[in-house]
Every structure is written in C-alpha cells, then in structure tokens.
C-alpha cells in the first residue's frame, strides 16, 4: 500500500497569508505522482478572530475549528486526531511560497532512515532576536534528552504517526516543538535535521518583537521545567467542529 501523508497546519489569525501557503502546498501535491503517495491537507483554525476559516476552506481536505484559542499544541493535537496518514507533516501557516519545499522532510521517513525529520531554516536576512530563546531551547533539549539539535524551535517537521502517538500529549504554547523533540529523543525515535529553504514571518527588534520573544522564552522555560520534573501529560479534551 502506498504511503499516506497527512499535512497538518495550525493557524491563528492567518487570513492574510494562509491562502498563499495552501496554494503552494497544493501545487506540490499536484506534481507528486499519485501512484507514489496519498496526501490530505488538514487546517486547524485555533479560534481565529479573522476569516482564516473561510479563506482556508476551498484548499483543504479537512478543516477543524476551535471555538476559542487553545494554543498550538492543542491545535496540532486536533489535527492529529483527524489525520488518517501513517506519516504526518507539520507546517506553519505563514510559509507562503516556500511551503512546497517542506515535502523533502518526508523522504527520510519513506526510506525508513528516520522516524522524525526536522527542517533547519536558512539564516534570517534581517535583524531578528538575539538568540536567547533558541539557546535556551537547545541547551535544555540536550540536558534533558542528550540530543544535540540545530533547530530546537522549528515547527516544520515530519514524523511517523505510530511513533508520535506513543509520545502522548503535545505541550502547550510556544514550547510545543521543544517538548516534542525531548519526548522523541527520550523515546528512542531516530531524528534527522535537514536544511530546507523555508522562510516565514519573523519578529524584529521592536516592542512587539521583544514582547513575543519574552513570552516565548517564558514558555520554553516552563516546558523544560515540566519535562525535567517528569510531570504526567494529560490529554486535552475535545472542543472542535469539522467539515
């Protein structure tokens, strides 16, 4: 049986960019030989206040809407719950024209060389942050799992569905990728990191950017503390409607 890939995209207030992202994903789907892969696209609207849901609707196979914002981890969990694929590809909603490049992450899984593939993005062309969040995440992942990563915050990753479901609940908020890498390494998943020419929205060195990175730093710190304490993960209750 040919592999089945579920592409899962969490979105919150992404009406201005999600159509372009989905268009380029669909272009890549159209050039992928149908005898090689089956593909479905799932978008989870995490309680957006704009018309993300309506913009995404024509471009997806499944659309899930949370009645309120519950965070990226819960959005990913809702997408996984609807996915039929044996391979899962997680993508951010703001990749726009570079979204199709992420399909390369599936290849190591198809060759059974890895259980999880993580995208390493090119360096930013402008001034972004000072690397504090990334440094904290990288050091924390290594101390808690022994895995040395170059892309601790990357949300663009592919993973085998059966291995992912062994890991339990996604972490909440900005710490979701950090926790996923720790849990995967601790559980013995084979992880690879690939250079992928993907770009997405970045915050600059302004008040909004510093506020965003401050929240991200706190969330990553809380995630590392929770994994260090070995707190029991609890499945998030369902709160969704779908088409």
Automatic annotation (TrEMBL):
<dbReference type="InterPro" id="IPR029044">
    <property type="entry name" value="Nucleotide-diphossugar_trans"/>
</dbReference>
<dbReference type="InterPro" id="IPR001173">
    <property type="entry name" value="Glyco_trans_2-like"/>
</dbReference>
<dbReference type="InterPro" id="IPR050256">
    <property type="entry name" value="Glycosyltransferase_2"/>
</dbReference>
<dbReference type="Pfam" id="PF00535">
    <property type="entry name" value="Glycos_transf_2"/>
</dbReference>
<keyword id="KW-0808">Transferase</keyword>
<protein>
    <recommendedName>
        <fullName>Glucosyl-3-phosphoglycerate synthase</fullName>
        <ecNumber>2.4.1.266</ecNumber>
    </recommendedName>
</protein>
<comment type="similarity">
    <text>Belongs to the glycosyltransferase 2 family.</text>
</comment>
<feature type="domain" description="Glycosyltransferase 2-like">
    <location>
        <begin position="6"/>
        <end position="128"/>
    </location>
</feature>
<keyword id="KW-0328">Glycosyltransferase</keyword>
<keyword id="KW-0460">Magnesium</keyword>
């Amino acid at each position: 049986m040919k592999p089945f890939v579920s592409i899962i995209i969490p979105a919150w207030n992404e009406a201005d960019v999600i159509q372009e992202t989905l268009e380029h994903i669909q272009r890549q789907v159209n050039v992928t030989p149908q005898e090689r892969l089956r593909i479905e696209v799932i978008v989870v609207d995490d309680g957006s206040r704009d018309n993300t849901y309506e913009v995404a609707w024509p471009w997806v196979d499944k659309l899930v809407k949370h009645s309120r914002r519950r965070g990226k981890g819960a959005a990913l969990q809702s997408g996984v719950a609807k996915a039929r694929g044996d391979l899962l590809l997680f993508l951010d909603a703001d990749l726009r024209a570079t979204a199709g490049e992420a399909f390369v992450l599936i290849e190591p899984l198809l060759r059974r060389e890895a259980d999880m593939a993580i995208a390493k993005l090119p360096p930013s062309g402008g001034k972004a942050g000072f690397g504090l969040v990334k440094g904290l995440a990288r050091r924390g992942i290594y101390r808690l799992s022994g895995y040395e990563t170059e892309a601790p915050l990357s949300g663009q990753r592919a993973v085998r569905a059966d291995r992912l479901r062994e890991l339990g609940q996604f972490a909440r908020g900005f710490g979701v990728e950090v926790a996923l890498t720790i849990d995967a390494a601790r559980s013995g998943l084979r992880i690879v990191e690939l250079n992928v020419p993907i770009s997405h929205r970045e915050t600059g060195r302004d008040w909004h950017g510093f506020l965003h990175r401050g929240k991200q730093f706190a969330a990553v710190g809380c995630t590392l503390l929770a994994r260090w304490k070995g707190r029991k993960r609890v499945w998030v209750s369902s709160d969704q409607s779908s088409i």
